[in-house]
Design goal:
The protein is α+β, with helices and mostly antiparallel strands. The chain has helices spanning 3-9, 23-34, 53-63, 87-104, 120-126, 155-158, and strands at 45-50, 75-82, 108-109, 112-113, 133-142. It is 36% helix and 17% strand. The structure holds flavin mononucleotide.
Length: 164
């Protein structure tokens, strides 16, 4: 799958088959995350790849209504960023890379909110991330068991040539 196809066919997937994802694929997904654009090239990110089922359950529980499906994923990539001026932009770029890379490998994933959520601190402590690190997102990944088609705004609605 080329990049354009991965970008255009990516959708939030919240149901997964009970099938493992190899370590090599998870490494490749995170490799794409760490190569994201970064303000002043600070690359303030760190990633925690969780595959242990009991840890996945604990993450799902901590996120409450936001990410119950994390419990059924093969893995969950936690994206952390040091508290720099552009931590949220950098962390979001890395998160999107992780998600699109997962799609390119045929996997489903979903951005689960981390930054500013009340559970962010609990999850930081749960995985032993240092205090200066903010949880940007949790990205469960797994083989897709659903193919949702949410409504998308048309290109003609959002693209303005020369002026708004
Ligand atoms: C910053 C951000 C936070 C999100 N948080 C959650 C979340 O906590 N739980 C969830 O199920 N989906 C979450 N999503 C996924 C959105 O619900 C999803 O992207 C949106 O409905 C559009 O669907 P699509 O991703 O299939 O295009 C989040 C997406 C973004 C960009």
């Amino acid at each position: 799958m080329n990049a354009i196809e991965a970008l255009k066919t990516r959708r939030a997937v919240r149901e997964y088959e009970k099938k493992p994802v190899t370590k090599a694929v998870l490494e490749d997904i995170v490799d794409c995350g760490r190569l994201a654009a970064s303000a002043r090239n600070l690359q303030p990110w760190d990633f925690v790849a969780v595959t242990d089922p009991s840890r996945l359950k604990a993450l799902a529980k901590a996120t409450g209504v936001h990410g119950p499906f994390i419990a059924d994923a093969a893995a969950c990539v936690l994206v952390f960023c040091k508290d720099t001026k552009y931590y949220l932009e950098d962390g979001s770029a890395a998160t999107q890379n992780v998600i699109v890379a997962a799609r390119a490998h045929g996997l489903g994933s979903c951005w689960v909110a981390g930054d500013k959520k009340p559970y962010a601190e609990e999850i930081r402590k749960m995985v032993g991330a240092p205090e200066m690190h903010k949880l940007i997102a949790l990205v469960p990944v797994g083989w897709p068991a659903e193919h949702p088609q949410p409504r998308k705004r048309a290109l003609a609605d959002v693209l303005h040539w020369e002026s708004f």
